[in-house]
Amino acid sequence: MYAVFKRELFSFLSSMVAYITIGIFLLVSGLLLWFFPDTSVLDYGYAELSGFFSLVPYLFMFLIPAITMRSFAEERREGTYELLITRPIRIWQIIVAKYFASLVLVLFALIPTVVYYYSISKLGFPQGNIDTGSVIGSYIGLFLLGAAFAAIGIFSSALTKNQVIAFVICAALCAFSFLGFDYTSQIAAFQSVETTITNLGINQHYTSISRGVLDTRDLLYFITFSALFLLFTKLIIGGKR
């Protein structure tokens, strides 16, 4: 399992795709936080990162599909897929190894953004006037969101050998998982079960954790959501095997 994890991680880091993808993510998030008039914290005038944490999920809808689209699609395109699944290693171990490699890449993308927290803390009056608990909760929420999206990405990559198709499928599923349930709950026919439908979506649980309160129900939701898509991946690979 570790060999698959190491191979997956280093194969991505050895290509320019990793650096371009993470670089674009950091560039866009930095521009949104500091320069764009409607989202700049300098124009907003308050020492907080709530705007940043509300924008990053939308960037994740493109960053994470780009990270995960090659997980199984690349294996099938290069003809190494059959070799991989016939080795003396369980399918679950292959899936989990690729999933953890994707999570490490998500961490690599998030760690540099801690500079934003440091900068906002220094710019606050007085210095350090920032809700650290809320920021920590938001980062935990972002990681859990990235874990959920990564599970979707692994699943999408297992569906096809075309990386572009895997990217599109993953982006669409991530967008629906994050926003689709909220929009669906607003339909008049579903007003009686609006709360139930909203709770099925990721946005509700991500927003809850971003307030700085770690509710076990939210943690359980993200764990279950990720495990469910990894299970779907196993069913697809097992059927093709």
From TrEMBL:
Pfam families: ABC2_membrane_3. It is a multi-pass membrane protein. Keywords: Cell membrane, Membrane, Transmembrane, Transmembrane helix. InterPro entries: ABC-2_transporter_component (IPR051449), ABC2_TM (IPR013525), Motility-assoc_ABC_perm_GldF (IPR019860). Its main location: membrane. GO terms for molecular function: ABC-type transporter activity. The chain crosses the membrane at residues 12-35, 55-73, 94-118, 138-157, 164-181, 219-237. Residues 51-236 form the ABC-2 type transporter transmembrane domain. The keyword Nucleotidyltransferase does not apply. NCBIfam families: ABC_perm_GldF. This is Gliding motility-associated ABC transporter permease subunit GldF. It comes from Pedobacter miscanthi.
